[in-house]
Amino acid sequence: MSYWQESLRESVTTVDELIKRFGVENIDREAVQQAIDGFNLRITPELLNLIKAPGDAIWRQYVPTPQENEVVDGIVDSLGEDADSPVPNITHRYPDRVLFLVSPVCAAYCRFCTRRRKVGDPEKIPLGQFDAAFAYIREHTEVRDVSMSGGDPLMLSDRRIEYFLGKLRAIPHVEIVRIHTRIPSQLPERITSALCETIKRHHPVFVNVHFNHPDELTPATRTALGMLADAGCPLGSQTVLLKGVNDDPAIMKRLMQELLRCRVRPYYIYQADMVAGGEHFRTSVAKGLEILEAIQGWTSGLAVPHFVIDAPGGGGKIPLLPQYVQSITEREVILRNYSGKTFRYVLPEAGDTPTTTRC
User: Fold this and answer.
1) Are 225 and 209 in contact, with CB atoms under 8 Å apart?
2) Which of 131-135, 196-200, 304-308, 352-356 bottoms out in mean pLDDT, i.e. has the lowest?
3) On the CB side of 153, how many CA atoms lie within 13 Å of its CA?
4) Where are the alpha helices (DSSP H) in 170-271?
5) What residues does each domain of the chain span?
6) CATH architecture entry for 82-320
7) DSSP 285-334
8) Is the peptide bond before 322 cis (omega within 30 degrees of 0)?
9) Residues designated catalytic
10) Does the reported pTM lie above 0.70?
11) Mean local confidence (pLDDT), 4-31
């Protein structure tokens, strides 16, 4: 058994273990058990060591609470993925790319998970039905970009990862493969030299990681990210805007800056999905725009991600921006910059050169 598998076996997976670690006063046994019955519990030793107190940013992401049982307007399949699934394990929503679910499990289970209806259940992300998925990708020559997801693809063995990457690389029109993973923050010891060599053989392979709080960037995690970067993997990070976790401009700016130090390009901040069981994590959209304004212009442009809503019902990712454009006429655009100053950009007539002046 590998070291990372041994570490995984030490994870907290039951309500009794939660009570033993955090105290009966912090765990409502009956309600938390109900939440676990609805969606698996697993918290790795790496994450357990990061929890400083009940209710902190790491606790909120991984420890089940009674709020998960309170469904008001949440949607089981909030992104409408099942409607866009032509064959098992494939979601084809965008013209030139598909999502390929290759693993049913994760190292730890995020309580806000969009795919909680499937993740943790091998019957819902079946491991024996990949032939149809590969056939679909081969037949659809417009597909040039495949995102491996799940569950977490890096929970597979090196041999299985080699299998998937090799099969995809054998399809001539597949130009880019992406691996979506939270392993570097949840189980950093899984990032081994052997895994990096496996991925390196099949470039270009992009690795999209997921970080929600700067505390997740531990020394072990930074080492894991460095190994992936050294193996030639372009790294991008996706972040979910979560109430009580990162809905603070200072926290989010620090996270983006620290990601860059780890050679990870901030990619998306997601408005939390309307997933049933995760409604208590949702913030206002205005909070996301406030955070984007606190980042844009106040730090490196490399540290500024896109703020998006993944539209309910399968609409895809829709970017949102603060109102920097104040007005547009046939002759001019009035613009507001990051610090609130206003500028006038004169539009050209035929033969004119445009000009910009301070209002």
Assistant:
1) yes
2) 352-356
3) 28
4) 183-186, 193-200, 219-230, 249-261
5) 3-65, 82-320, 325-358
6) Alpha-Beta Barrel (3.20)
7) HHHHHHHHHHHBTTB-GGG-PEEEEEETTTTEEEEE----EEEE-SSEEE
8) no
9) 93-94, 97, 106, 110, 113, 115, 273, 310, 317
10) yes
11) 97
